[in-house]
Amino acid sequence: MDACQLLSETDARFVVSGFGQEEWPVNISYDLSSVIEQLPEAIDRLQSGRSAEIDLYGQGIERRLTFVPAGDTTKIRCISGTAWRPGPDVEVLSRTAALELLTGLARDFGAALRRAAPDLAMRTPFAKW
User: In terms of C-beta distances under 8 Å and separation of at least 24 residues, what long-range contacts does 51-54 make, across chains too?
Assistant: First the structure.
């Protein structure tokens, strides 16, 4: 994704943590790009109370996050496709906090893109973020 390539050339950072690892080995140009592609559908699904998935499929990271709403909470399960194992493999957040993780990422991405590439930031779905 061109937007992530542009952001990778700035001072922007993409940080993922949890499931027993303080900072995951992710980058902006590839890993964030894969997340951003999946973000609109994941947000829509969580907002409507359905399960959602974010797949960090890049070689070396290979982790899938599954968000399962249950009442006022959301269980987030991490499944690793490498030798690394999450510990714990499930984290539970309030439904609001889980949704805020994704919508907050969208907002932050949109804000960074507006600073780095205003014309690109006007495209769908970034303009809504």
Answer: 52/102, 54/102
